[in-house]
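Q: Two folds, back to back.
A: First:
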Amino acid sequence: MQDMPLKKRNEDKTKRRRLEINNRKTVETIIREHGFSDYRWIKSENIVVAHWVRFKCIFGCTSYGRKGTCPPQVPAVEECRAFFNDYSEAVILRFAHRVDRPEDRVDWSRGISEKLIALERQVFLNGFHKAFMLFMDECRMCSKCTGSREECVRKEVARPGPESLAVDVFSTVRSVGYPIEVLTDYGCEMNRYAFLMVE
């Protein structure tokens, strides 16, 4: 009789693990159907959230105060940390690309974001009600941002990038073996990363 509770707990744990594996397979199938092949899973507890990232947004980023999905239009760092704690896992999607001119990055980024939002929707429609995408770049869904969440004309598809939510992308992606370096000029290949939060 003393072993019954332990046995029951082990059975429940096995069932949860099977469900987790099946859920991963479902999400991975959807990812591949959307044309993405370079991705890795990460436990959300391993997503590094840091105050220094927010400071880099405030002091150094030209989008600060000009985008509805960038600081100061986003939650405080501690709220961002709490957001990631609401999930057990995430998928990191990698995009390696080189542009000839700096301005080419905008159209490339917008095209990827359109595909990412379609991916998020499909994952949601497959029963993952907490699916939420963090774009690989600042939101570029509109050619000109209103600079305000309240005045955003595409609220249903506007999403922040991971840095907007104080994610240390460098430490986080390196922890799963992905490459990332500071680029010294626009001729270098970019490694950009989107995060699909999923439960």
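A: Second:
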Amino acid sequence: MSSTATAPVPAPPAWAPRYWIPGYDTPSIAAPILLLVTVVLMFVLPARKVPVVHRPPPPPPMAATLILQPLSTAVLAPMQPFELSGSAQPGGTVRLYFGTALLTQTVAGADGAYRFQLARFPAGTHSLRVETVFRGRSMWSTELPLRFEAPKAPAPKAPAGSSKNGKPAAKKKPQNPVLKH
């Protein structure tokens, strides 16, 4: 039998770093090398052009659609004409709805003002709404409940010279007896 003796591996010199030892911590050597290669390639290879997407700016917000006249607390006479007015997006198409039915439409002026002449609403409470359409966008107003009531007959006036109970009214004495005319 022959014996093969292997020579012992000499210890690295004291000045050599530990990662120079063969087989010692290979990932710790690969990480800085990969980082260095990546940085060099970034500067050597031509830059890839990234397409720039140009989007138009968003449109400005629409002006609020408001019903200014008549007020929701107003009591109107039935079957009588009245005016509904308000403000909306200047140049927008303003549509007036009675419930879900379209009544009429107009175009708001340069100042945003609009006006509708309406008539023939029966007695009762009815809701109206206004929608503004401008450049494909729309904005609704809040519902406006309008009350239509017949005017109440005034109480009959008492004839001159009579009191409330039907007897002739007593003549009033002057407040200051010194001042007589």
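Q: And?
A: Residues 26-44 form the longest helix (19 residues).
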